[in-house]
Amino acid sequence: MKLVLKHCTPEDLEVLVRISRQTFSAAFEAQNDPVDFQLYLDTALSGERLLSELKDPLSHFYFVYLRNDLVGFFKYNEGEAQTDLKDARAIELERIYVLPEYQKMGIGKGIIKEVVQKAIELGKDYIWLGVWEENLKALSFYEGLGFIKFGKHPYFIGKDKQMDWLMKLHLTTL
Questions:
Q1: Residue 163: HSE in the Cβ half-sphere, 13 Å Cα cutoff
Q2: What are the residue boundaries of the N-acetyltransferase domain, all occurrences included (predicted)?
Q3: In 3D, which of 61, 49, 40, 47 has the Cα closest to residue 18?
Q4: pLDDT at 117
Q5: Residue 140 is part of a domain; what is its CATH number?
Q6: What is the tally of structural domains in the chain?
Q7: In what order do the strands lie in the sheet with 59-66?
Q8: In degrees, to the nearest 5, what angle opens at C-alpha 32 toward C-alphas 100 and 153?
């Protein structure tokens, strides 16, 4: 399977907002309070917020295409753009989402492979990310790819404080 990546720019904002909300809703809406969930969508995935992130030179969004179909996206952060660690030796994979109809096709693994390649090209030692502790499918996915748990941090959906496992993949062991 040949995935094609397209680096997102501010001109891609409308599509980025749409796919961000669509994939996040598909993944988490059913498990969250509707008011808190809408508050999250209206803040974290607003056009204004995503545009600010797109303009940050240390944050990188990519659309992922299979053939000519947009199937998902991911975002990684370097340096001070990282949400927690801000470790110059690492990149944070902050978002990775695949549209529901394209899941279980190996696209997630393909995206991780691309992120690993980008991290190696940048001379990084590891990739880290946060995964909701109740998202057992995602935890299993990352563990199967060699990510290990190393801590926790709070993550808010609206006013609802949830916990994420922090996981890392050491690139020197690949």
A1: 6
A2: 3-172
A3: 47
A4: 97
A5: 3.40.630.30
A6: 1
A7: 3-7, 59-66, 69-78, 90-98, 126-132, 160-170, 148-157
A8: 95
Per the CB < 8 A criterion, the answer to whether 129 and 93 are in contact is yes
| Spatial contact of 125 and 89, defined as CB atoms under 8 Å apart | yes
- Give tens-digit pLDDT for 93-119: 999 999 999 999 999 999 999 999 999
Instruction: Tell me the whole-structure pTM to 2 decimals.
Output: 0.95
Return the structure tokens found at 82. 């990282």
First-to-last alpha carbon distance for the chain, in angstroms, is: 21
Q: What's the domain range around 124?
A: 3-173
Distance of CA 148 to the CA centre of its chain: 17
Q: How confident is the model at residue 174 (pLDDT cuts 50, 70, 90)?
A: low
Catalytic residue among 40, 97, 142, 155: 142
Q: Is 142 a catalytic residue?
A: yes
